[in-house]
């Protein structure tokens, strides 16, 4: 029981340090960029869909679980090339559940360095809690009754807020770089006069490059993702080795937090499967068994000949 209480306490501390889990973290962030950058919408010129499930710090009581459905497609609206996208994210952590739904639009422009996507996102963010708060007795043997603190919501409460974001995404056949801001309007979530919070603005910078190795069947694809809410920051450094443009394996390092193994494969019809396992390196390693993440995705190019071999640029 004490171990569970300690884990939940550490979970709450980590929750605050990791941006209050407003934006859940993903080890396979190189495959799911639309979640933090609307400029990615339609950048590949194809129809894409992904379902991703993450079990963070598995084995711990109240550990985070995240489920994602995302899709995007290239379009030509009002005579201008662009893209649209949809994100649906369900994120559970302890007694809290956050659900986010947003629509994305990006305007595309060809520049000297590649294709530039200028994107915006609009949607709703629902935060709900359903916790039973109990405060143990202090050193004097005094027990504080649940509900005695009016700043802590009791029972099941839920609030919805409007949410917006912006992003820039530049890509070519060899590299990508993006910058974005989520929760741009920093919407308030108010349960009562004393119990309230807000969606802190998050800043993202991401990039990656494809490096051909001596053997033409192998390619090295390093990438990074930096995120910050100004008060704190987090950096993911990733490297994948891709064989024959269909099989990949690599490692990811989340600074001071975790080391991860990345695996995946792509079939000739555009269907892809990926898995990652995070080995926690922080103090939370004592209370969990690492993190698991699995995804399945599909890319469809309506203009290609179905008899031709499929070649994905999904990493970009």
Topology:
Blueprint: H1 2-17, E1 47-55, E2 65-77, E3 80-93, E4 96-111, E5 114-131, E6 155-171, E7 175-182, E8 188-190, E9 196-198, E10 202-209, E11 211-212, E12 218-228, E13 233-243, E14 247-254, E15 258-266, E16 271-280, E17 291-300
Percent of residues in helices comes to under 10%
Please tell me how large the radius of gyration is.
21 Å
The level 1 CATH classification is Mainly Beta
**Considering the protein shown, what is the CATH homologous superfamily?**
monomeric porin ompg
Q: Quote the average pLDDT.
A: 83
What best-fitting shape do the alpha-carbon axes yield?
Answer: globular
Question: What does the largest sheet look like?
Answer: 14 strands, antiparallel, barrel
> CA-to-CA gap between the ends?
46 Å
- Overall domain count: 1
The strand line-up of the biggest sheet is 1-2-3-4-5-6-7-10-12-13-14-15-16-17
Oligomer: single chain
Reading the helices and strands in chain order gives HEEEEEEEEEEEEEEEEE
Q: What is the number of strand segments?
A: 17
CATH architecture: Beta Barrel
